[in-house]
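Tokens for chain A. Residues wanted.
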């Protein structure tokens, strides 16, 4: 097998698997650049859903972010993203490579951060990687100690748990665009989040992997209080996009009810960790005994109470 791989690499003028990976990445980048030119050159794309495409993001976030950049003036090409794992799949890698932005990424696993620092992108681009388990009390210090403050281009929040509470605490930066994960399972009507727990780990909170994050309404209410408005959700129904009100321009404001997407991806698991692929309507039953906080009155309720789960 190794001989076959070496033979194939020589055929294409490559020395290592790394060369093959870089060639693949370059081809993806070129395709994306052509797509950006096609999508945004004539101004015909009017919604974030129409702009979705994926290069390094999990879903269509790469395209949505490019759409927003075509509608917003960014003066400081800097991003902050946390919960990036090894950064091969993220919301900002395309920004780094395609738009030559600078950035700070944070992850709580040392091996992930070591991987990022050994990646070619770390010396080819102005990227900082910090290792820390994020909570609402340390996030501002983590950002500040890496020399980031004030007006920046974009913040991406995806920590599979305390997203609402951590974003609420951030005050050392004022991003023009905020991307934040939400839990579609909590619906579009209630303003709820998991209770704050500084040591929260999604896979340990409940075996189903369904218990995490905040609702679209809770995050939109928080955004409004911080001076942002909702642009919409991706089609997968797991990421929201907010724009700072002083930069909104011609973008259309949407409501949680209009933007909420019933997620179709089926990542529920059983007690052994195997995928169960439960339909949307069956997922709440798995976590119905667990609590959520109503972010409007600050009180805790069981999911069974809030959603009348039998």
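Reply:
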């Amino acid at each position: 097998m190794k001989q076959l791989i070496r033979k194939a690499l020589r055929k294409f003028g490559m020395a290592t698997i790394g060369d093959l990976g870089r060639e693949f990445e370059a081809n993806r980048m070129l395709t994306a650049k052509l797509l950006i030119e096609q999508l945004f050159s004539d101004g015909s794309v009017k919604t974030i859903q129409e702009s979705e495409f994926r290069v390094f993001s999990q879903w269509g976030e790469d395209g949505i972010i490019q759409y927003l950049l075509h509608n917003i003036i960014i003066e400081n090409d800097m991003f902050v993203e946390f919960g990036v794992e090894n950064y091969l799949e993220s919301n900002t890698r395309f920004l780094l490579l395609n738009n030559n932005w600078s950035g700070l990424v944070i992850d709580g696993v040392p091996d992930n951060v070591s991987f990022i620092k050994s990646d070619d992108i770390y010396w080819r681009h102005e990227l900082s990687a910090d290792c820390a388990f994020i909570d609402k009390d340390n996030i501002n210090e983590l950002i500040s100690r890496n020399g980031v403050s004030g007006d920046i281009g974009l913040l991406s929040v995806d920590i599979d748990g305390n997203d609402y509470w951590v974003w609420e605490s951030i005050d050392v930066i004022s991003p023009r665009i905020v991307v934040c994960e939400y839990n579609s399972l909590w619906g579009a009507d209630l303003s709820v989040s998991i209770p704050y727990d500084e040591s929260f780990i999604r896979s340990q909170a409940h075996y189903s992997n369904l218990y995490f994050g905040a609702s679209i309404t809770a995050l939109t209410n928080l955004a409004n209080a911080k001076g942002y408005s909702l642009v919409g959700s991706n089609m997968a129904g797991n990421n929201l996009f907010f724009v700072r009100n002083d930069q909104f321009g011609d973008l259309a404001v949407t409501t949680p009810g209009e933007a909420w997407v019933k997620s179709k991806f089926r990542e529920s698991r059983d007690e052994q960790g195997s995928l169960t692929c439960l339909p949307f309507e069956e997922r709440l039953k798995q976590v119905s005994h667990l609590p959520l906080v109503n972010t409007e009155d600050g009180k805790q309720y069981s999911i069974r109470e809030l959603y009348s789960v039998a």
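Residues 73-307 form a domain with the Rossmann fold fold (CATH 3.40.50.150). The chain has one domain: 73-307.
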